[in-house]
Amino acid sequence: MYLKKPLWTEGVAEQANSNESSPPSSLEPESESASAAAAATTAVEELVNSVNNQRIYREVSLALRTGLRDACAEFSFLRLRGLRSFLQSLRSIAQSDSTILLFCHTQSIPELQVVPVLFQHSLKETEDERVTSLDHIFSVEPMKITSPSSDAEVALALRVLEGCCLLHPESSRLANKFKAIQVPVLGF
Protein backbone atom coordinates (compact mmCIF):
# COMPACT_ATOMS: atom_id res chain seq x y z
CA MET A 1 0.00 0.00 0.00
CA TYR A 2 1.43 3.31 -1.06
CA LEU A 3 -0.66 6.28 -0.07
CA LYS A 4 -0.57 8.81 -2.87
CA LYS A 5 -2.35 12.10 -3.32
CA PRO A 6 -5.40 11.54 -5.50
CA LEU A 7 -5.32 13.34 -8.81
CA TRP A 8 -8.63 15.09 -8.23
CA THR A 9 -7.34 17.06 -5.20
CA GLU A 10 -4.93 19.01 -7.37
CA GLY A 11 -7.75 20.29 -9.56
CA VAL A 12 -9.70 21.53 -6.55
CA ALA A 13 -6.69 23.40 -5.16
CA GLU A 14 -6.02 25.03 -8.53
CA GLN A 15 -9.68 26.06 -8.83
CA ALA A 16 -9.64 27.55 -5.33
CA ASN A 17 -6.49 29.56 -6.18
CA SER A 18 -7.99 30.81 -9.44
CA ASN A 19 -11.19 31.91 -7.66
CA GLU A 20 -9.15 33.96 -5.19
CA SER A 21 -7.13 35.69 -7.90
CA SER A 22 -9.99 36.37 -10.34
CA PRO A 23 -11.48 39.85 -10.22
CA PRO A 24 -15.11 40.08 -9.07
CA SER A 25 -17.77 40.79 -11.66
CA SER A 26 -19.10 44.32 -11.93
CA LEU A 27 -22.70 43.15 -11.41
CA GLU A 28 -22.19 41.98 -7.81
CA PRO A 29 -20.70 43.95 -4.96
CA GLU A 30 -17.22 42.83 -3.94
CA SER A 31 -18.18 41.66 -0.46
CA GLU A 32 -21.00 39.39 -1.64
CA SER A 33 -18.92 37.72 -4.35
CA ALA A 34 -15.97 37.27 -2.02
CA SER A 35 -18.10 35.69 0.71
CA ALA A 36 -19.88 33.43 -1.80
CA ALA A 37 -16.57 32.31 -3.30
CA ALA A 38 -15.12 31.69 0.16
CA ALA A 39 -18.18 29.66 1.20
CA ALA A 40 -18.06 27.61 -1.99
CA THR A 41 -14.33 27.02 -1.60
CA THR A 42 -14.76 25.99 2.03
CA ALA A 43 -17.58 23.57 1.17
CA VAL A 44 -15.56 22.03 -1.65
CA GLU A 45 -12.48 21.69 0.56
CA GLU A 46 -14.53 19.99 3.29
CA LEU A 47 -15.97 17.58 0.73
CA VAL A 48 -12.53 16.83 -0.67
CA ASN A 49 -11.11 16.23 2.83
CA SER A 50 -14.01 13.93 3.69
CA VAL A 51 -13.63 11.90 0.51
CA ASN A 52 -9.87 11.76 1.02
CA ASN A 53 -10.27 10.45 4.60
CA GLN A 54 -12.70 7.78 3.40
CA ARG A 55 -10.28 6.75 0.66
CA ILE A 56 -7.39 6.44 3.08
CA TYR A 57 -9.51 4.41 5.53
CA ARG A 58 -10.52 2.04 2.71
CA GLU A 59 -6.89 1.66 1.60
CA VAL A 60 -5.67 0.95 5.14
CA SER A 61 -8.43 -1.56 5.84
CA LEU A 62 -7.95 -3.25 2.44
CA ALA A 63 -4.20 -3.57 3.02
CA LEU A 64 -4.84 -5.08 6.44
CA ARG A 65 -7.46 -7.51 5.13
CA THR A 66 -5.25 -8.78 2.30
CA GLY A 67 -2.26 -9.08 4.62
CA LEU A 68 -4.34 -10.94 7.21
CA ARG A 69 -5.70 -13.30 4.57
CA ASP A 70 -2.19 -14.26 3.50
CA ALA A 71 -0.81 -14.32 7.05
CA CYS A 72 -3.43 -16.93 8.02
CA ALA A 73 -2.50 -19.29 5.18
CA GLU A 74 -1.39 -22.87 5.68
CA PHE A 75 1.84 -22.51 3.73
CA SER A 76 4.87 -20.58 4.89
CA PHE A 77 5.53 -18.87 1.55
CA LEU A 78 2.00 -17.37 1.59
CA ARG A 79 2.45 -16.20 5.18
CA LEU A 80 5.73 -14.56 4.13
CA ARG A 81 3.89 -12.69 1.39
CA GLY A 82 1.33 -11.47 3.91
CA LEU A 83 4.04 -10.34 6.34
CA ARG A 84 5.83 -8.43 3.57
CA SER A 85 2.53 -6.77 2.75
CA PHE A 86 2.13 -5.80 6.41
CA LEU A 87 5.61 -4.27 6.52
CA GLN A 88 4.96 -2.26 3.37
CA SER A 89 1.63 -1.07 4.78
CA LEU A 90 3.14 -0.11 8.13
CA ARG A 91 5.82 1.95 6.38
CA SER A 92 3.27 3.98 4.49
CA ILE A 93 0.97 4.27 7.53
CA ALA A 94 3.80 5.68 9.64
CA GLN A 95 4.27 8.65 7.29
CA SER A 96 1.22 10.57 8.48
CA ASP A 97 -0.46 11.23 11.81
CA SER A 98 -3.91 10.80 10.31
CA THR A 99 -3.09 7.34 8.94
CA ILE A 100 -1.60 6.34 12.29
CA LEU A 101 -4.89 7.30 13.94
CA LEU A 102 -6.78 5.26 11.33
CA PHE A 103 -4.50 2.29 11.99
CA CYS A 104 -5.15 2.59 15.74
CA HIS A 105 -8.87 2.68 15.00
CA THR A 106 -8.68 -0.44 12.83
CA GLN A 107 -6.81 -2.32 15.55
CA SER A 108 -9.84 -1.95 17.80
CA ILE A 109 -11.83 -4.04 15.29
CA PRO A 110 -11.27 -7.77 16.05
CA GLU A 111 -11.31 -8.83 12.38
CA LEU A 112 -8.47 -6.41 11.54
CA GLN A 113 -6.17 -7.01 14.51
CA VAL A 114 -2.69 -7.99 13.40
CA VAL A 115 -1.07 -9.16 16.66
CA PRO A 116 -3.31 -12.20 17.33
CA VAL A 117 -2.76 -13.44 13.78
CA LEU A 118 1.00 -13.17 14.20
CA PHE A 119 0.94 -15.30 17.34
CA GLN A 120 -1.56 -17.82 16.02
CA HIS A 121 0.20 -18.50 12.72
CA SER A 122 3.76 -17.21 12.41
CA LEU A 123 5.04 -17.03 15.99
CA LYS A 124 3.40 -20.15 17.37
CA GLU A 125 5.49 -22.89 18.82
CA THR A 126 5.91 -25.81 16.48
CA GLU A 127 3.74 -28.74 17.28
CA ASP A 128 4.74 -32.24 16.40
CA GLU A 129 2.24 -33.22 13.72
CA ARG A 130 3.45 -36.73 13.14
CA VAL A 131 0.89 -39.25 12.05
CA THR A 132 0.56 -41.81 14.80
CA SER A 133 -2.19 -43.91 13.25
CA LEU A 134 -3.78 -44.29 9.87
CA ASP A 135 -7.31 -43.85 11.19
CA HIS A 136 -7.52 -40.38 9.68
CA ILE A 137 -7.31 -41.93 6.21
CA PHE A 138 -10.52 -43.84 6.75
CA SER A 139 -12.37 -41.01 8.49
CA VAL A 140 -14.56 -38.46 6.77
CA GLU A 141 -12.63 -35.37 7.86
CA PRO A 142 -9.19 -34.80 6.35
CA MET A 143 -6.25 -34.03 8.59
CA LYS A 144 -5.19 -30.38 8.38
CA ILE A 145 -1.44 -30.00 8.05
CA THR A 146 0.20 -26.59 8.10
CA SER A 147 3.79 -25.95 7.21
CA PRO A 148 5.96 -24.83 10.12
CA SER A 149 7.25 -21.29 10.32
CA SER A 150 10.58 -20.69 8.63
CA ASP A 151 13.32 -18.52 10.11
CA ALA A 152 12.60 -15.77 7.58
CA GLU A 153 8.92 -15.86 8.49
CA VAL A 154 9.64 -15.52 12.21
CA ALA A 155 12.04 -12.63 11.55
CA LEU A 156 9.45 -10.80 9.43
CA ALA A 157 6.72 -11.50 11.99
CA LEU A 158 8.87 -9.96 14.71
CA ARG A 159 9.46 -6.87 12.57
CA VAL A 160 5.71 -6.56 11.95
CA LEU A 161 5.05 -6.99 15.67
CA GLU A 162 7.58 -4.27 16.44
CA GLY A 163 5.96 -1.91 13.94
CA CYS A 164 2.49 -2.57 15.32
CA CYS A 165 3.69 -1.95 18.88
CA LEU A 166 5.39 1.30 17.88
CA LEU A 167 2.32 2.64 16.08
CA HIS A 168 -0.32 1.32 18.45
CA PRO A 169 0.42 1.02 22.20
CA GLU A 170 -2.47 -1.41 22.76
CA SER A 171 -0.69 -3.91 20.51
CA SER A 172 2.07 -4.34 23.08
CA ARG A 173 -0.56 -5.04 25.75
CA LEU A 174 -2.20 -7.54 23.42
CA ALA A 175 1.17 -9.19 22.76
CA ASN A 176 1.64 -9.47 26.52
CA LYS A 177 -1.59 -11.48 26.67
CA PHE A 178 -0.03 -13.98 24.29
CA LYS A 179 2.94 -14.18 26.68
CA ALA A 180 5.30 -12.67 24.13
CA ILE A 181 6.81 -10.39 26.71
CA GLN A 182 7.50 -11.92 30.07
CA VAL A 183 7.05 -9.24 32.69
CA PRO A 184 9.05 -10.07 35.81
CA VAL A 185 7.09 -9.89 39.02
CA LEU A 186 9.11 -8.22 41.74
CA GLY A 187 8.10 -9.51 45.13
CA PHE A 188 9.25 -7.69 48.19
From TrEMBL:
Which residues fall in a compositionally biased region of kind Low complexity? 16-35
Name the domain of life this protein comes from: Eukaryota
Q: Entry's InterPro entries? A: Cell_div_Cdc14
Q: Which residue ranges are recorded for the region named Disordered? A: 13-35
What's the name of the protein? Uncharacterized protein
Q: Where does this protein come from, organism-wise?
A: Rubroshorea leprosula
